[in-house]
Amino acid sequence: QVQLVESGGGLVQAGGSLRLSCAVSGRTFSSYAMGWFRQAPGKEREFVTAITTSGGSTAYADSVKGRFTISRVNVKNTVYLQMNSLKPEDTAVYYCAARLTGMNSGHYIAPNEYDYWGQGTQVTVSS
């Protein structure tokens, strides 16, 4: 059973920064492509960013490009989301997701492409 646990959310003023972490249980973390999604009240879950199994390639939604950075440390079974220059419109519940792909993976931007999800962490950006 794979479990994903997010942490690091909170309340921050516009222009501030937060770093989210997602710890993944299991011994095959390096075989999972990872992604971050977010969902604001009354809206659909949307893609934020994704990273390949090796961490060598990333993809970002246009709305966060240049402000957010995804990274992973495979020996720690953890993926991170560094969020800078936060805006009120970034307010949402943030979810990490994992897709078992093996050693060679691409980027996955649709929620239904992922196999496992965390419980989410709230990020609130005040103006």
Condensed summary:
0% of the residues lie in helices and 48% in strands. It has 127 residues and is mainly β.
Written account of the structure:
With 127 residues, this protein is mainly beta. The N and C termini lie far apart (40 Å). Strands 2, 4, 5, 6, 9, 10 and 11 form a seven-stranded mixed β-sheet that branches. Strands 1-3-8-7 form a four-stranded antiparallel β-sheet, with no helix packed on it. It is globular, with a radius of gyration of 14 Å. The protein has no helices and eleven strands.
Overview features:
127 residues, mainly beta, seven-stranded mixed sheet, four-stranded antiparallel sheet, globular
Order of helices and strands: EEEEEEEEEEE
Radius of gyration: 14 Å
* Helicity, as a percent range: under 10%
Low-confidence stretches: none
Query: What is the count of β-strands?
Result: 11
| Overall pLDDT | 95
Q: Return the structural class.
A: mainly beta
The largest pleated sheet is described as: 7 strands, mixed
Secondary structure tally, helices: 0
| Percentage of residues in DSSP E strands | over 45%
Shape, principal axes of CA atoms: globular
Topology, pairings included?
Layout: E1 4-7, E2 10-13, E3 18-24, E4 32-39, E5 46-51, E6 58-60, E7 68-73, E8 78-83, E9 92-100, E10 116-117, E11 121-126
Parallel strand pairs: 2-11
Antiparallel strand pairs: 1-3, 3-8, 4-5, 4-9, 5-6, 7-8, 9-10, 9-11
